Amino acid sequence: MTYGVIMAGGQGTRFWPRSLANRPKQFLKLFGDRTMIQMTVDRLGQLIPEERCMVVTNVDYTGLVRDQLPGIKDDFIIGEPVARNTAPCIASAAALLQRHDPDAVMVVLPADHRIADEETFRSVLASAISTANEEKTLVTIGIEPDRPETGYGYIRYNQEKSRSRKEHSAFPVLGFTEKPDREKAISFLDQGGYLWNSGMFVWRADSILEAFRKHQPEIWSELEKWTGESVTRSEIDRFYQNCPSVSVDYGIMEQADNVQVLPAEFGWNDVGSWRAVYDLAEKDADGNAVMNTNVTIQESQNSYISTTGKRHVALVGVENVAVVETEKGLLICDLDRVQEVKEVVERLRREEGGDEWL
Amino acid sequence: MTYGVIMAGGQGTRFWPRSLANRPKQFLKLFGDRTMIQMTVDRLGQLIPEERCMVVTNVDYTGLVRDQLPGIKDDFIIGEPVARNTAPCIASAAALLQRHDPDAVMVVLPADHRIADEETFRSVLASAISTANEEKTLVTIGIEPDRPETGYGYIRYNQEKSRSRKEHSAFPVLGFTEKPDREKAISFLDQGGYLWNSGMFVWRADSILEAFRKHQPEIWSELEKWTGESVTRSEIDRFYQNCPSVSVDYGIMEQADNVQVLPAEFGWNDVGSWRAVYDLAEKDADGNAVMNTNVTIQESQNSYISTTGKRHVALVGVENVAVVETEKGLLICDLDRVQEVKEVVERLRREEGGDEWL
Question: How many angstroms separate the CA atoms of B150 and B278, rounded?
């Protein structure tokens, strides 16, 4: 059977003041009336129903997961006591799924992406699932790049060698590249044969566990301590406490030799900042995206406005700004400098009493 | 005796959302811990004590005047039932003062100006008071212009002909000019002999009443209806209802032939917009004026920030903006387009339910 594994551990510091310590990005309604994590589950549709989805998140957010995704079983919600990056997250999910179903195939998805063409997305996943199941490979979903983005990792692949002739075929991976500088990113686009690393993976639970045994013995040995019939809360806690912090890209994908990539185009966006939210939002003729009522726009363009609606908000003569107002905070940010929102959060963390606003 | 007559009828639409219908600019603490009208009375110091000040304001604000200026006598607070510009305001104050003291000299002051050099201000007024009292002229205070401002009226005067050799001398007025265009304003500065019309006047009550008799017979005839020993609330109401709306500049000063101007330099500012408030405020090394705590400034310059302090406010990468937050409203405005704040207020007035935010 196929299972969804939704990684929902992010803290969303780039989305202050909407995302706060007690409610990070994946649990927010940034688009319409469903939260990001709800949209992630919805998007799987018939391919993987909600009751076959597992969510890995910080232990503080398990209540939010239960509230927002009531169809998910309690033992399919893993609460991480500490953040250890994606490798321990995926290892624990694989070990639990394999106990549940020795033939489990896992579709690993971040909880906070947006995808425009959901039908193509599901068709790509279906193809990845059958490839991973039949060839016992580690399949990663690569996104056809349309600009020299420096914010993503890239995957180089062998465009010639696909074993199948299907519409969505997997190809051998030649290498992974960290976030490149602009010059390098431009050359990747010119050369071709490079894809964005989307952070979405498909594999059999036994395949990825075997890869952990080979390439991450430290994590593997922690998993081996789970000897009882079921895994207890304190065993999970101890596993995370003892695991090193390592990403699955670095810890597994760059080491393993049975890695494939499936190139895809389905309008993918990792919603990394207020800029991305603005880009994805519906806009009026002046390029303004207004998320609430009680807003007056006077001679202002290309701005994003999300407010509580409890006071009247007026923009006069401004351009290219994000205005985000909540009960706790108000952000006014140049849409070209949205990355610096995380500096604000970091400054508040350092300041005495700054926590109150996070 | 000398009396202050403080004109406090303004609605402060350029100061939304701080100034609301129930609390316009003159009743706000825009600078430090005293309101504009309190600062206006304070500034008179020993020259005119609070108990010799009269305030003319909208009838809805008489409670605010009593609260903010408890030293002012009840019969020295005139509540206007409708706004009729400055001529009826000054006529009613003059008529009431003259009943109180046939030799009254009036110092007429707007309630919402800022003056940097208060000592010089008082010394200018003292000189204007003795001139107005001795020569029975209508004395207006003119400000030496330091830039080709298009937002003020100008007074042309005869720089040669002063009757006195005092430090602050009054000169004959040659003419009044409406707000000029930029070219004209520049030529005024080049020529010399032009002053800004500050809207501050000094005269004997009997002199200005005589001028009303001559030049504003319609207003004068309404005043003549006050025949009883004291003037009742309903007589004042009827007076305002019946008076035409006319400014004292147009209705009296431009008509009368006994007008003098006293040129002055005391750091005058009519605080006409958020820009002026920003200009007058204390700023940090980046040119930011921050009126509250709980503000994080990240790479932002030359901005004015006034907030409730109840939420954390962060500016990231913005420049030259006013951010003004209250319980009812939030304004984000380019500091070079502050005049358009009044358009926002006008739009809200027209919109159904918009009143809620004013």
Answer: 19
CB–CB of A343 and B298 under 8 A? Answer: yes
Asked whether the predicted pLDDT for residue B348 surpasses 80, the reply is yes
Q: Which strand (E) or helix (H) includes residue B348?
A: helix B341-350
The answer for B353, left when phi > 0, alpha when psi is -120 to 50, beta otherwise, is: left
pLDDT at B229: 82
Say yes or no for a CB contact (<8 Å) between A314 and B333. Answer: yes
Q: What is the pLDDT of residue B281?
A: 94
Query: Quick one: pLDDT at residue A164?
Result: 66
Give the nearest partner residue to B298 out of A323, A340, A356, using CB atoms.
Answer: A340
Residue of A288, A296, A356 to mutate for B, most B C-beta atoms under 10 A: A296
Please say if the pLDDT value at position A181 is more than 90: yes
Task: Give the 3-state secondary structure of residue B38.
Answer: helix
Smallest Cβ–Cβ distance between B314 and the set A314, A327, A344 belongs to A344
CB A167 within 8 A of CB A123: yes
Instruction: Read off the tokens for A138.
Output: 């580690």
CA B174 – CA B261 distance, rounded (Å): 10
Give the H or E element holding residue B260: strand B259-264
What burial class does residue A155 get, using C-beta atoms within 10 Å of its C-beta: 0-12 exposed, 13-18 middle, 19+ buried? buried
Region A4-33: mean pLDDT is 92
- Tens-place pLDDT, residues A91-100: 999 999 999 9
Pairwise CB contact (< 8 Å): A333 & B340: no
Question: What confidence category does residue B20 fall into, taking pLDDT thresholds of 50, 70 and 90?
Answer: confident
With CA atoms as reference, the chain B residue closest to A315 would be B332
Inter-chain CB proximity B337 and A328 less than 8 Å: no
| pLDDT at position A314 | 97
Q: What strands lie across the sheet with A321-325, from one edge to the other?
A: A289-290, A304-306, A321-325, A329-334, B312-316, B295-298
- Quick one: pLDDT at residue B278? 96
CB contact under 8 A, B307 and A330: yes
Among A298, A305, A316, A355, most B C-beta atoms within 10 A, so best to mutate, is A316
For range A30-45, the mean pLDDT: 96
Interface of B with A in 269-298 (CB under 8 A): 294, 296, 298
- Do the chains contact at A313 and B330, CB–CB below 8 Å? yes
DSSP letters spanning B126-168 = HHHHHHHHHH--EEEEEEPPSS--SSS-EEEE-SS--S--SSS
Identify the pLDDT of residue B243.
97
Token pair for residue B256? 């009368």
Lowest mean pLDDT among A3-17, A37-51, A196-210: A3-17
With CB atoms and an 8 Å threshold, state whether A318 touches B334: yes
pLDDT over threshold 70, residue B256: yes
Cα A138 to its chain centre, rounded Å, is: 18
Chain A residues closer than 8 Å to B347 by CB: 296, 298
Given CB atoms, is B316 within the 8 Å cutoff of chain A?
yes
Mean pLDDT to the nearest integer, A124-146: 97
List the single residue in A296, A311, A316 with the smallest CB-CB distance to B334: A316
Question: Which tokens go with A267?
Answer: 């309008």
Peptide bond into B17 cis (omega under 30): yes
Q: Which residue has the tokens 């009375």?
A: B41
Which pLDDT belongs to residue A165?
Answer: 64
